[in-house]
Protein backbone atom coordinates (compact mmCIF):
# COMPACT_ATOMS: atom_id res chain seq x y z
CA UNK A 1 0.00 0.00 0.00
CA UNK A 2 1.33 3.50 -0.81
CA UNK A 3 -0.16 5.06 2.34
CA UNK A 4 2.41 5.94 4.98
CA UNK A 5 1.89 4.21 8.31
CA UNK A 6 3.76 4.70 11.57
CA UNK A 7 4.49 8.23 12.75
CA UNK A 8 2.95 11.14 10.83
CA UNK A 9 5.37 13.02 8.55
CA UNK A 10 5.10 16.75 8.00
CA UNK A 11 6.59 19.40 5.70
CA UNK A 12 7.88 22.24 7.87
CA UNK A 13 9.38 24.51 5.23
CA UNK A 14 10.57 24.89 1.65
CA UNK A 15 13.32 26.79 -0.13
CA UNK A 16 14.92 27.33 -3.52
CA UNK A 17 17.91 28.92 -5.20
CA UNK A 18 18.72 29.56 -8.85
CA UNK A 19 21.84 31.11 -10.44
CA UNK A 20 21.74 34.79 -11.37
CA UNK A 21 22.47 34.31 -15.08
CA UNK A 22 19.37 33.96 -17.25
CA UNK A 23 19.63 32.43 -20.73
CA UNK A 24 16.80 33.46 -23.06
CA UNK A 25 15.47 31.74 -26.14
CA UNK A 26 16.66 34.69 -28.18
CA UNK A 27 20.21 34.08 -26.96
CA UNK A 28 19.89 30.40 -27.85
CA UNK A 29 18.93 31.42 -31.39
CA UNK A 30 22.48 32.75 -31.74
CA UNK A 31 24.06 29.56 -30.39
CA UNK A 32 22.20 26.76 -32.15
CA UNK A 33 19.82 26.29 -35.07
CA UNK A 34 16.51 27.07 -33.37
CA UNK A 35 14.00 29.88 -32.87
CA UNK A 36 12.17 31.38 -29.92
CA UNK A 37 8.86 30.34 -31.48
CA UNK A 38 10.00 26.73 -31.99
CA UNK A 39 11.20 26.40 -28.41
CA UNK A 40 7.99 27.84 -26.94
CA UNK A 41 5.76 25.73 -29.19
CA UNK A 42 7.65 22.50 -28.48
CA UNK A 43 8.41 23.01 -24.78
CA UNK A 44 6.73 26.07 -23.27
CA UNK A 45 10.12 27.32 -22.03
CA UNK A 46 11.06 31.02 -22.35
CA UNK A 47 14.14 31.30 -20.13
CA UNK A 48 16.38 29.17 -17.93
CA UNK A 49 19.01 29.95 -15.28
CA UNK A 50 22.63 28.92 -15.90
CA UNK A 51 25.32 28.45 -13.25
CA UNK A 52 28.33 30.76 -13.38
CA UNK A 53 31.80 29.26 -13.97
CA UNK A 54 32.83 27.53 -10.76
CA UNK A 55 29.29 27.54 -9.34
CA UNK A 56 28.69 23.94 -8.30
CA UNK A 57 25.64 21.79 -7.62
CA UNK A 58 26.63 21.71 -3.95
CA UNK A 59 26.58 25.53 -3.86
CA UNK A 60 23.01 25.69 -5.17
CA UNK A 61 21.94 22.83 -2.90
CA UNK A 62 23.42 24.53 0.16
CA UNK A 63 21.66 27.83 -0.55
CA UNK A 64 18.28 26.14 -1.09
CA UNK A 65 18.75 24.03 2.03
CA UNK A 66 19.56 27.05 4.19
CA UNK A 67 16.39 28.81 3.05
CA UNK A 68 14.24 25.72 3.68
CA UNK A 69 15.67 25.35 7.18
CA UNK A 70 15.02 29.03 7.88
CA UNK A 71 11.38 28.80 6.83
CA UNK A 72 11.01 25.56 8.79
CA UNK A 73 12.53 27.03 11.94
CA UNK A 74 15.06 24.21 12.38
CA UNK A 75 18.79 24.39 13.03
CA UNK A 76 21.64 22.20 11.88
CA UNK A 77 21.57 20.48 15.27
CA UNK A 78 18.01 19.32 14.55
CA UNK A 79 18.95 17.47 11.35
CA UNK A 80 19.26 13.69 11.32
CA UNK A 81 19.78 13.23 7.57
CA UNK A 82 20.56 15.24 4.45
CA UNK A 83 19.33 13.70 1.18
CA UNK A 84 20.23 15.27 -2.16
CA UNK A 85 18.60 14.18 -5.40
CA UNK A 86 20.85 15.03 -8.33
CA UNK A 87 22.00 13.81 -11.72
CA UNK A 88 24.80 16.37 -11.99
CA UNK A 89 26.90 15.95 -8.84
CA UNK A 90 30.12 17.93 -8.41
CA UNK A 91 31.92 14.57 -8.48
CA UNK A 92 30.76 10.97 -8.48
CA UNK A 93 32.27 10.72 -5.03
CA UNK A 94 32.17 12.35 -2.62
CA UNK A 95 28.47 12.96 -3.05
CA UNK A 96 26.77 16.33 -2.99
CA UNK A 97 24.86 15.53 0.22
CA UNK A 98 28.05 14.93 2.19
CA UNK A 99 29.49 18.24 0.98
CA UNK A 100 26.29 20.10 1.88
CA UNK A 101 26.20 18.43 5.30
CA UNK A 102 29.74 19.65 5.87
CA UNK A 103 28.96 23.15 4.61
CA UNK A 104 26.00 23.32 6.98
CA UNK A 105 28.01 22.00 9.91
CA UNK A 106 25.31 19.41 10.61
CA UNK A 107 27.72 17.27 12.59
CA UNK A 108 25.13 14.79 13.88
CA UNK A 109 23.52 14.22 10.49
CA UNK A 110 23.97 11.49 7.91
CA UNK A 111 24.15 12.29 4.20
CA UNK A 112 23.34 10.48 0.96
CA UNK A 113 22.80 11.27 -2.71
CA UNK A 114 19.77 9.85 -4.54
CA UNK A 115 20.44 9.31 -8.24
CA UNK A 116 17.25 8.21 -9.98
CA UNK A 117 16.94 10.50 -12.97
CA UNK A 118 14.58 13.44 -12.68
CA UNK A 119 12.42 11.29 -10.38
CA UNK A 120 15.16 11.47 -7.75
CA UNK A 121 13.23 14.31 -6.09
CA UNK A 122 10.18 12.11 -5.46
CA UNK A 123 12.34 9.12 -4.45
CA UNK A 124 14.23 11.29 -1.94
CA UNK A 125 10.99 12.68 -0.48
CA UNK A 126 9.59 9.16 -0.14
CA UNK A 127 12.77 7.82 1.47
CA UNK A 128 12.99 10.73 3.89
CA UNK A 129 9.33 10.32 4.80
CA UNK A 130 9.73 6.58 5.29
CA UNK A 131 12.68 7.10 7.62
CA UNK A 132 10.69 9.51 9.77
CA UNK A 133 7.55 7.34 9.76
CA UNK A 134 9.64 4.37 10.90
CA UNK A 135 11.20 6.34 13.75
CA UNK A 136 14.72 6.27 12.30
CA UNK A 137 14.91 10.06 11.94
CA UNK A 138 13.05 13.09 13.27
CA UNK A 139 14.13 15.78 10.81
CA UNK A 140 15.33 15.32 7.24
CA UNK A 141 16.54 17.96 4.81
CA UNK A 142 15.64 16.86 1.27
CA UNK A 143 17.20 18.77 -1.63
CA UNK A 144 16.98 18.50 -5.40
CA UNK A 145 19.85 20.27 -7.16
CA UNK A 146 21.27 20.36 -10.68
CA UNK A 147 23.94 22.09 -12.75
CA UNK A 148 23.10 20.29 -15.96
CA UNK A 149 24.45 23.14 -18.07
CA UNK A 150 27.90 21.60 -17.61
CA UNK A 151 26.72 18.29 -19.06
CA UNK A 152 24.80 19.57 -22.08
CA UNK A 153 25.92 19.61 -25.70
CA UNK A 154 25.19 23.23 -26.58
CA UNK A 155 25.10 22.31 -30.27
CA UNK A 156 22.29 19.76 -29.76
CA UNK A 157 19.03 21.67 -29.97
CA UNK A 158 17.08 18.63 -28.77
CA UNK A 159 18.62 18.97 -25.31
CA UNK A 160 20.25 22.40 -24.90
CA UNK A 161 16.94 24.29 -25.16
CA UNK A 162 15.40 22.22 -22.37
CA UNK A 163 17.62 22.25 -19.32
CA UNK A 164 18.36 24.82 -16.65
CA UNK A 165 20.19 24.91 -13.33
CA UNK A 166 18.70 25.32 -9.87
CA UNK A 167 17.96 23.78 -6.50
CA UNK A 168 14.96 23.37 -4.25
CA UNK A 169 14.58 21.96 -0.77
CA UNK A 170 12.04 20.66 1.74
CA UNK A 171 12.38 20.03 5.47
CA UNK A 172 10.50 16.90 6.57
CA UNK A 173 9.79 16.33 10.25
CA UNK A 174 7.90 14.30 12.83
CA UNK A 175 7.11 17.60 14.56
CA UNK A 176 3.58 18.76 13.80
CA UNK A 177 3.96 22.25 15.24
CA UNK A 178 3.89 24.97 12.59
CA UNK A 179 3.81 22.52 9.70
CA UNK A 180 2.79 23.37 6.15
CA UNK A 181 1.59 19.96 5.04
CA UNK A 182 1.34 16.28 5.96
CA UNK A 183 2.74 13.55 3.73
CA UNK A 184 -0.01 11.02 2.98
CA UNK A 185 1.23 8.51 0.43
CA UNK A 186 3.84 7.69 -2.19
CA UNK A 187 4.24 5.27 -5.07
CA UNK A 188 7.53 4.57 -6.88
CA UNK A 189 8.03 2.66 -10.14
CA UNK A 190 10.62 1.99 -12.83
CA UNK A 191 10.86 0.36 -16.26
CA UNK A 192 14.53 -0.49 -16.58
CA UNK A 193 14.01 -2.05 -20.00
CA UNK A 194 13.99 1.54 -21.30
CA UNK A 195 17.15 2.65 -19.53
CA UNK A 196 18.66 3.95 -22.77
CA UNK A 197 16.06 6.68 -23.43
CA UNK A 198 17.93 9.25 -21.33
CA UNK A 199 21.58 8.68 -20.49
CA UNK A 200 25.01 10.13 -19.84
CA UNK A 201 27.15 7.28 -21.18
CA UNK A 202 30.75 8.48 -20.84
CA UNK A 203 33.30 8.53 -18.07
CA UNK A 204 32.55 5.58 -15.82
CA UNK A 205 32.67 1.78 -15.89
CA UNK A 206 30.76 1.19 -19.12
CA UNK A 207 32.73 3.79 -21.08
CA UNK A 208 35.84 4.90 -19.14
CA UNK A 209 37.07 8.33 -20.14
CA UNK A 210 39.33 8.21 -23.19
CA UNK A 211 40.07 10.14 -26.35
CA UNK A 212 37.46 8.00 -28.11
CA UNK A 213 34.68 8.80 -25.61
CA UNK A 214 35.46 12.48 -26.12
CA UNK A 215 35.42 12.10 -29.90
CA UNK A 216 32.11 10.22 -29.71
CA UNK A 217 30.61 12.96 -27.50
CA UNK A 218 29.72 10.48 -24.76
CA UNK A 219 30.31 12.97 -21.96
CA UNK A 220 27.08 14.84 -22.69
CA UNK A 221 23.41 14.17 -21.93
CA UNK A 222 21.77 12.08 -24.63
CA UNK A 223 18.01 11.74 -24.96
CA UNK A 224 15.55 10.09 -27.32
CA UNK A 225 12.94 12.82 -26.94
CA UNK A 226 10.13 11.27 -28.97
CA UNK A 227 10.48 7.95 -27.17
CA UNK A 228 10.43 9.70 -23.79
CA UNK A 229 7.25 11.53 -24.78
CA UNK A 230 5.59 8.26 -25.81
CA UNK A 231 6.69 6.44 -22.65
CA UNK A 232 5.40 9.13 -20.29
CA UNK A 233 2.03 9.33 -22.04
CA UNK A 234 1.66 5.56 -21.93
CA UNK A 235 2.86 4.99 -18.38
CA UNK A 236 1.97 8.02 -16.28
CA UNK A 237 -1.83 8.51 -16.62
CA UNK A 238 -2.72 4.93 -15.64
CA UNK A 239 -0.11 4.88 -12.91
CA UNK A 240 -1.39 8.12 -11.36
CA UNK A 241 -5.01 6.90 -11.43
CA UNK A 242 -3.97 3.62 -9.79
CA UNK A 243 -1.78 5.37 -7.26
CA UNK A 244 -4.63 7.62 -6.14
CA UNK A 245 -6.99 4.65 -5.85
CA UNK A 246 -4.50 2.69 -3.76
CA UNK A 247 -4.21 5.68 -1.44
CA UNK A 248 -7.99 5.87 -1.13
CA UNK A 249 -8.15 9.18 -2.99
CA UNK A 250 -9.93 9.90 -6.26
CA UNK A 251 -7.98 11.77 -8.91
CA UNK A 252 -10.80 14.33 -8.90
CA UNK A 253 -10.05 15.01 -5.21
CA UNK A 254 -6.52 16.23 -5.97
CA UNK A 255 -6.65 20.02 -5.82
CA UNK A 256 -3.23 20.73 -7.35
CA UNK A 257 -0.93 18.68 -9.57
CA UNK A 258 2.78 19.44 -9.53
CA UNK A 259 4.40 17.66 -12.46
CA UNK A 260 8.07 17.39 -13.27
CA UNK A 261 8.66 20.62 -15.18
CA UNK A 262 10.09 18.95 -18.27
CA UNK A 263 7.90 20.02 -21.14
CA UNK A 264 4.52 21.77 -21.25
CA UNK A 265 3.31 19.46 -24.04
CA UNK A 266 3.92 16.44 -21.80
CA UNK A 267 2.12 18.04 -18.84
CA UNK A 268 -0.89 19.02 -20.96
CA UNK A 269 -1.05 15.59 -22.61
CA UNK A 270 -0.99 13.68 -19.31
CA UNK A 271 -3.58 16.02 -17.77
CA UNK A 272 -5.86 15.47 -20.75
CA UNK A 273 -5.61 11.71 -20.33
CA UNK A 274 -6.35 12.09 -16.63
CA UNK A 275 -9.37 14.28 -17.35
CA UNK A 276 -7.88 17.09 -15.27
CA UNK A 277 -8.21 20.76 -16.20
CA UNK A 278 -4.85 22.40 -17.04
CA UNK A 279 -5.64 25.19 -14.55
CA UNK A 280 -5.13 22.70 -11.71
CA UNK A 281 -1.45 22.19 -12.58
CA UNK A 282 1.33 24.24 -10.98
CA UNK A 283 3.64 25.22 -13.84
CA UNK A 284 6.73 27.44 -13.76
CA UNK A 285 8.93 25.84 -16.44
CA UNK A 286 8.58 28.91 -18.64
CA UNK A 287 11.04 30.64 -16.26
CA UNK A 288 13.39 27.81 -15.31
CA UNK A 289 13.22 25.13 -17.99
CA UNK A 290 13.79 21.52 -17.01
CA UNK A 291 15.80 21.55 -13.78
CA UNK A 292 15.60 17.75 -13.52
CA UNK A 293 15.57 16.54 -9.89
CA UNK A 294 15.08 20.11 -8.68
CA UNK A 295 12.02 20.98 -10.76
CA UNK A 296 9.14 19.94 -8.49
CA UNK A 297 10.86 21.57 -5.51
CA UNK A 298 10.98 24.91 -7.36
CA UNK A 299 7.30 24.62 -8.31
CA UNK A 300 6.26 23.60 -4.79
CA UNK A 301 8.23 26.39 -3.12
CA UNK A 302 6.87 29.11 -5.39
CA UNK A 303 3.30 27.88 -4.95
CA UNK A 304 3.67 27.82 -1.17
CA UNK A 305 5.47 31.18 -1.04
CA UNK A 306 2.61 33.07 -2.73
CA UNK A 307 -0.09 31.33 -0.69
CA UNK A 308 -1.49 29.42 -3.65
CA UNK A 309 -1.85 26.18 -1.68
CA UNK A 310 -4.53 26.37 1.00
CA UNK A 311 -5.21 24.31 4.16
CA UNK A 312 -7.12 21.12 3.45
CA UNK A 313 -6.05 20.95 -0.20
CA UNK A 314 -4.47 17.76 -1.51
CA UNK A 315 -1.37 18.07 -3.68
CA UNK A 316 0.06 15.36 -5.93
CA UNK A 317 3.71 15.71 -6.91
CA UNK A 318 4.91 13.47 -9.71
CA UNK A 319 8.02 13.07 -11.83
CA UNK A 320 9.65 10.82 -14.41
CA UNK A 321 13.20 10.46 -15.62
CA UNK A 322 16.17 8.39 -16.69
CA UNK A 323 15.86 4.75 -15.90
CA UNK A 324 13.01 5.05 -16.83
CA UNK A 325 11.83 5.87 -13.32
CA UNK A 326 8.60 7.50 -12.27
CA UNK A 327 6.68 8.08 -9.06
CA UNK A 328 4.48 10.36 -7.01
CA UNK A 329 3.94 11.65 -3.50
CA UNK A 330 0.65 12.97 -2.12
CA UNK A 331 0.42 15.54 0.64
CA UNK A 332 -2.33 17.54 2.33
CA UNK A 333 -1.86 21.18 3.22
CA UNK A 334 -2.17 21.77 6.96
CA UNK A 335 -0.75 25.19 7.74
CA UNK A 336 -1.37 28.67 6.43
CA UNK A 337 0.16 27.82 3.05
CA UNK A 338 2.65 30.70 3.13
CA UNK A 339 6.35 31.01 3.91
CA UNK A 340 8.44 34.11 4.50
CA UNK A 341 11.58 34.84 2.49
Question: What does this entry look like structurally?
Answer:
- With about 350 residues, the protein is of the alpha+beta class.
- It has one domain (about 1-335): Thiolase/Chalcone synthase (Peroxisomal Thiolase, Chain A, domain 1, 3-Layer(aba) Sandwich).
- The protein has eleven helices and 13 strands.
- The strands form three sheets. A nine-stranded mixed β-sheet has the order 5-4-6-7-1-8-13-12-11, sandwiched between helices. It has a two-stranded antiparallel ribbon with strand order 2-3.
- α4 (about 95-105) links the parallel β4 (about 80-85) and β5.
- The longest helix has 22 residues, at about 225-245.
- The model is unreliable at about 335-340 (pLDDT under 50).
Give me the secondary-structure category. alpha+beta
Tell me which oligomeric state these chains represent.
single chain
Order of helices and strands: EEHHEHEHEHEHEEEHEHEHHHEE
Fraction of residues in helices? 25-40%
CATH topology: Peroxisomal Thiolase, Chain A, domain 1
CATH class reads Alpha Beta
| CA-based shape | globular
What does the main sheet amount to?
9 strands, mixed
Number of strands: 13
Taking strands numbered 1, 2, ... along the chain, how are they ordered across the largest sheet?
Answer: 5-4-6-7-1-8-13-12-11
Poorly predicted runs: 337-341
Q: Strand fraction band? A: 15-25%
- Work out the radius of gyration: 19 Å
Separate helix tally? 11
First and last CA, distance: 37 Å
Amino acid sequence: MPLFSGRPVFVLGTGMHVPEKILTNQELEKMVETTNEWIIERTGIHTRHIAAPGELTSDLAFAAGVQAMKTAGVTVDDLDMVLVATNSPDTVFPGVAAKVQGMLGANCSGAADIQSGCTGCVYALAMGSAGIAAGLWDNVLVIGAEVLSSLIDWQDRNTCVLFGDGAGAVVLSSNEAGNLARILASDLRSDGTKHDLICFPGGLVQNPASEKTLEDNLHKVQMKGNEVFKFVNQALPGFLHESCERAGIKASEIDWWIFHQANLRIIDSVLRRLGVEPARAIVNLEKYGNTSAASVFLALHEAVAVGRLLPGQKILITSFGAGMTYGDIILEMQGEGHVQG
